[in-house]
Amino acid sequence: GGGGGGGDEGTGGGGAGGALRLASPVSITVAATGRLLATGGAAQRGACVGGGGGGGSGGVIYLYSPAVNVTAAAVVSAAGGTGGPGATIYSNTPGGNGGPGRIRVSAVPASCTLGGTFTPALVGGCAATPAPGVAGRTYVGSYPE
Fold first, then answer.
1. Where residue 47 falls among pLDDT bands split at 50, 70, 90?
2. Are 114 and 120 contacting, i.e. CB atoms less than 8 angstroms apart?
3. Alpha carbon of 87 to those of 15, 45, 105: distances in Å?
4. Which of 69, 98, 121, 132 has CA atoms 20 to 30 A from the CA of 90?
């Protein structure tokens, strides 16, 4: 997401993270240098009498394939953006961070490797997440679910 703009009396918040959907009937591989990002934008510092803007919320990432492989150094993130710091003259009130987004993976467990860094974090690797899911964590379902 885009960053928020500065202002004299207040600041704009960061933009939301957007959405990313990757689907393949064969496989999805995210290599070591791969980055799948739907992160919220950072807000700006407050100016004069304004407090910092709020960070943008994280977006959505959906990986749908029988075989999904995310290597150990790869990053899959739908994190919220950071809030802006407060101005130093009259208001030192920082903006809040944006809320986390959502990640969903649908894969055949035997053909799945999720070794990268996930934000929100995984519950149990490629194992299907128990219904109804775990709040604040990546959801993993069995393909073609």
1. low
2. no
3. 20, 6, 41
4. 98
Identify the residue whose tokens are 């004299």. 8
| Token output for 91 | 């208001």
Residues 6+ apart with CB under 8 A from 102: 58, 60, 61, 78, 120, 139
pLDDT tens by residue, 57-111: 999 999 999 999 999 999 999 999 988 887 666 667 778 899 999 999 999 999 9
pTM: predicted TM-score of the whole model, two decimal places: 0.89
49-58 per-position pLDDT tens digit: 667 788 899 9
The closest of 82, 78, 65 to 35, measured between CA atoms, is 78
Do 63 and 22 form a contact (C-beta atoms < 8 A)?
Answer: yes
